[in-house]
Amino acid sequence: MNCWKTVNYSKQYGSQRMFILSLITMLLTFIILYIPLSYFFAPNELYDNQFVLFIFGIILMYPLHKLLHYLPVAHLGSKIRKRIEWKYGVYPFIEVKVHEPISKPLFLFALFLPFISITILLAVSCFLFPHYVHYFAILMAYQIGLSVPDIAYGLNILKAPKAAFIEENDDGFEILIHHHQVRNM
Question: What sections of the protein cross the membrane (predicted)?
Answer without folding.
Answer: 20-39, 51-73, 106-130, 136-155
